[in-house]
Amino acid sequence: xxxxxFFTLLFVSLLFNACAQNKNMESLxxxxxxxxxxxxxxxxxxxxxxxxxxxxxxxxxxxSGAFHNYKEQGIYICKQCNLPLxxxxxxxxxxxxxxxxxxxxxxxxxxxxxxxxQRTEIVCANCDGHLGHVFFxxxxxxxxxxxxxxxxxxxxxxxxxxxxxxxxxxxxxxxDAYVKGKGYEQYSVATFAGGCFWxxxxxxxxxxxxxxxxxxxxxxEETYPTYEEVGRASTGHAEAIMIYFDSTLxxxxxxxxxxxxxxxxxxxxxxxPDIGPQYRSAIFYHSNEQKKAANKAINKLTGASKxxxxxxxxxxxxxxxxxxxAYHQDYYEAHPENPYVQRISRPKVxxxxxxxxxxxxxKYKH
Length: 366
Fold this sequence. Notes:
Layout: H1 3-27, H2 48-54, E1 74-78, E2 84-87, E3 91-92, E4 100-101, E5 109-113, E6 120-124, E7 130-136, E8 145-149, E9 154-158, E10 173-174, H3 175-179, E11 188-194, H4 197-205, E12 210-218, H5 227-231, E13 238-245, H6 252-262, E14 270-271, E15 274-275, E16 281-285, H7 288-303, E17 314-317, E18 321-323, H8 331-334, H9 339-355
Parallel strand pairs: 16-17
Antiparallel strand pairs: 1-2, 1-9, 3-4, 4-8, 5-6, 6-7, 7-8, 10-18, 11-13, 11-16, 12-13, 12-18, 14-15
């Protein structure tokens, strides 16, 4: 290849990448942020402390950074090149002493094997400036991700200066919209709350005759509630599941029997390590027949002294069901390595499998 042709291709490539990056920022509603610097010769000037972390991969002292407890709304950008990295809406308090985010903007954060051979380093995808490390499966948020970042690697652009036009959450939707076109009208429905929906969804999904189990939020007044809002116990909703089932194969009474095995109905506003009204035990009935069946099942269990403590399960009329974020659906099956799934969810699911071997779908029979 001739040298002139090589430089022509290089120029076109750089121009294309720059245009693509600008287009990407515009699609995210981030076009009003400082311009991203792609020329290393023009990177922002760093102080000695900033160079120690960003260039030489050092770590600032815990609780010493400007942003570890910063709560303003806006966008966090790379100190060295201005690339947008994190949104304040994805920031949470991990108690570790460093800014923590459970998501990043686009693919602007790059993961690399750390020099220690154990951790995963994160760097700016544009300038390769060191940011910190990323950890998975710790249970801080539903996304099971913690980008642990040095404050000194970041600059902050407040909300009024960073116009972010994208909706805060486009995943939450009412159940009718979610199942539209799936032909579920032919099936019966049941709505239960029994603690973390990762557990209950997996337990009921194993029962023959159950067509679909959908994780979501029910029992409150808030519309389009997010996982974080429900987790703060500010919506009145509980983590719940909507079950579509073929009543010719399994009836509502049988599903109630599974429900009272799949969780502990004597724990008030909690299930094991998960504490708060969002983890309460509840049955949201869709008809008077379901209401009668639920109360009958509770009275039967109480009379037989099946539990050492009183059953505290709520029996209330169904009002609405909001489908949870996509990453919650089929979480048990998709993340068998997750520590919570292994320690908390799996024993509950296995208990259902052991108690109801004749009810299991063929693929779950041992």
